[in-house]
Amino acid sequence: MIVDPASTPQRDVYKLLIGSVVPRPIGFVSTVSTEGVFNLAPFSFFNAVCGDPPMVCFAISHRDPSKDTARNVAATREFVVNIVSEEIAEKMNLTSGDYAQGVDEFAVAGLTPVASEAVRAPRVAESPVSMECRVVQMIDLSPKPAGTDLVIGEVVRFHVKDEIVENFRIDPDKLKAIARMGGNEYSRSRDRFELIRPKV
Ligand SMILES: Cc1cc2nc3c(=O)[nH]c(=O)nc-3n(C[C@H](O)[C@H](O)[C@H](O)COP(=O)(O)O)c2cc1C
């Protein structure tokens, strides 16, 4: 099968993309509006993109009106990325509903907002790792309806639960991160194997 996205329905192209790029890590992004309303939503167009300084990115699909996360990030230039463990998978999913602007998804999902140190957006108490971020760049990648705004943020504070980390190494069996597959499927991070890089 060979597909030219330019002559293929967007829905099918999207299915190919999200079915192929798997498993996708999930950035559970908390923000606060200029009116002070907390917001929380998952994004699987998410990854780490720079080591020094540490940076992450995620992409928000266009919508009219804009998703709350897009509006809040553009207005405040700050956000927190929380990692989703198996324990909070269902709560994460609850926050992804199309709630009206002004709805606090922390309350919807029964998750606990905790004040951050360096940014106004709160972090998720139940997440094993949270990263406080300041926006480096926000890039509108495409004007099309299914285009996205790519948000790149510098991590200015890490919060890591003491019981999952030793000497800065996070134990994946304790982190229990989940990831997004195509459709409505998720994967756990339990089935792992090791490969040693060649020393050339
Ligand atoms: C696991 C998961 C991953 C998602 N990934 C994205 C994503 O990468 N980009 C996006 O725009 N929406 C994504 N969504 C949908 C948003 O979470 C959803 O539109 C949410 O309501 C946005 O919330 P907001 O309006 O409060 O910002 C995802 C949903 C789920 C459940």
Quick gist of this model?
With 200 residues, the chain is α+β, with helices and mostly antiparallel strands.
Arithmetic mean pLDDT? 97
CATH architecture: Roll
The unreliable regions are: none
The level of helicity is 10-25%
What small molecules does the structure contain? flavin mononucleotide
Largest beta sheet: what is the strand line-up?
3-2-6-9-10-5-4
Query: What oligomeric state do the depicted chains represent?
Result: single chain
CATH topology label? Pnp Oxidase, Chain A
Strand count: 14
Number of helices: 5
What is the H level of CATH, i.e. the homologous superfamily? Electron Transport, Fmn-binding Protein, Chain A
The portion of residues forming beta strands comes to 35-45%
Order of helices and strands: HEEEEEHEHHEEEEEEHEE
Which CATH first-tier class would you pick? Mainly Beta
How would you describe the shape? globular
From the alpha-carbon coordinates, what is the Rg to the nearest angstrom? Answer: 17 Å
Report on the structure:
The protein is globular. The chain is built from five helices and 14 strands. The chain has helices at residues 10-20, 68-76, 89-94, 105-109, 172-175; strands spanning 24-25, 27-32, 38-43, 46-51, 54-61, 78-83, 113-114, 123-124, 129-140, 148-160, 165-166, 169-170, 178-180, 186-188. By secondary structure, the chain is α+β, with helices and mostly antiparallel strands. The chain has a single domain (25-188), classed as Electron Transport, Fmn-binding Protein, Chain A (Pnp Oxidase, Chain A), CATH 2.30.110.10. A hairpin with a 2-residue loop joins strand 4 (46-51) and strand 5 (54-61). The longest helix is centred in the first third of the chain and has 11 residues, at 10-20. The chain is 18% helix and 36% strand. The strands form four sheets. The protein has a seven-stranded antiparallel β-sheet with strand order 3-2-6-9-10-5-4, with helices on one face. The structure holds flavin mononucleotide. Flavin mononucleotide is lined by residues 26, 39, 41-45, 59-61, 67-69, 93, 96, 98, 180.
